Task: structure prediction
Amino acid sequence: MSAARGAEGLWILARALWHRSAVMFLRYAFNTLGLLVSLYLVFLVFFLGANYVGGGFAGSPVPGLGRTLDQLVVGFFLWFLALAAYQDLADKVMQEAQWGTLEQVMMTPFGFRWVSLVTVLVDTVLNFAIAAVILAAMLLTSGRTLHVDLATVVPLLLLVVGTSVGLGFGLAGLALIYKRVQALYQVLQFLLIFLIAAPLDASPLLGLLPLTLPAHLTIDAMTQGTRLWQMPVRELALASVVSAAYLALGLLVFGRMERAARATGNLAHY
Amino acid sequence: MDEAAVSVEGLCKSYGRGAKRLRAVDGVSFAVPRGSVVGLLGPNGAGKTTVIKCILGLVTPDAGEVRILGADVRREPLRAYRHVASVLEGSRNVYWRLTVRENLEFFASLMGVDPRRRRPFLDELLERFDLASRQHATVNDLSRGMKQKVAIACAFAREAEVLFLDEPTLGLDLATARQLQATLKELAREHGRTIVLSSHDMDVVEDLCARVVILSAGRVVVDDEVRNLVGLFRAEAYRIEVVGELPQAACERLRERFRVRAWEGSPAGTSFEVELADAGELYEVVDRIREFGAPLRAIARSEPDLAEVFLRVTSSRGQLLPEREAAEAAREASSP
Result:
């Protein structure tokens, strides 16, 4: 047996998970394309609707409306990233149980949690690619431009995705026990809109909600051009702590549910 | 190292609560030596799958201990997973949207085996399982038999020392099943793997396994070598065929004196099996048939096979044990 352990083993595992996700992504090309088109159409409905009702964003004589459109574009971009991060994970657990591969991927010397975390990272990269395409399409349609300072945007986006991944782990844990959790997706889609758009000025306590603070910081960075080092340290620290806390909570729930599924013997049921 | 590849001690598992509580596994213990191929048998609902899943750490037992090459599956599952691979649901254990080779590479990587370095071994597996010509086809496009082969090849690709194969030939046509059986036998022998095989196909089990553990109602009822088991149930039994239909009276006349079973009669011919205390009684059987004027067509000695042993063990568990003990006692008494 010539198996590698430690960092080398993890690298082999990560490569395999990347290859699996990328290949699936391409082989389900119709689904991927459908996702891109439907997301763009949703944006178009918002954009044209607002243009029609409000008399237009960009060319509006009302001061600040252009900025509102920028916020809508970034908010929509964040909404997709957050949505994809939690749904991918829960969907994967349900699909793998259905395919009969869930127990197989659980039997790895690296542990299922590592497999899940690496899968999340891999899927996040793919989701970033989709999100970037949608973002470009939205900007072209609206005729707006955004500030994309990678050193600022990437860490903030990781905080957004980290929180959402925590949510995804929680949902994936529920999927291990209850098998079907898609009904929650509908509620969560709307909840995410609220979380991203929650008025932080109304109460600083809203910063403790998942996504709210990192989403606000990202919108600020992309619409106002605020750099990471120009942001209040207190807010950055709080966003990091809150994001890590939700991720940890999600992992905790997932671990509990996984143990419960093993105890009841319905890990592979679907 | 004489450590067992798999050791199971006092395994218990119940499902449900209260009045609906079902005891699926009840104090199962057995050990599988390294490099051996052992059959885990039992009728539907005997607890085989639960035992296998408890061994693999996929179901948490209520009590008992499982070790795989010394690693306690419950306390140190990741250490145990270094040594184990399985096929649990036949063709459903692989990714149907990936190609055959991609699947092999993926499952090898799950163990930390670098598929680029192990290319010759993966090529060998593809050849052995007759998959080389379809290695770049997505599994979705393969027949059921080939999908099953892919799942088994993926388990081998993990290069684990211990393999669990749950119903590896289920649903396959006879030719594919026999081909797979031959491949498994070669690989087990050449690579010195420990294999725990669960199957209802007794030909596969008898051909591959030196030993079987038979479960019934969640308990181990037999744990013995196949040749011993077949020997235990070996009796002076003969299959007799006569021309034409033997009347019912002939059957009753024979039953008065001997154990007669598997009676099949038609105007063209009658056949039955008769169990005798010794071969000398065969003359008496022939005399009784002659009384009814039926010409003999054939007499052949019946040899029990594993399927018959299995049926007798599991169909009358309560009566089997004294019978088995008696047979064992007889064997001991007859040995020098």
Notes: The first helix of chain A runs from residue 6 to 27. Chain A has one domain: 7-264. Residues 59-63 of chain A have pLDDT under 50 and may be disordered. Residues 7-264 of chain A form one domain.
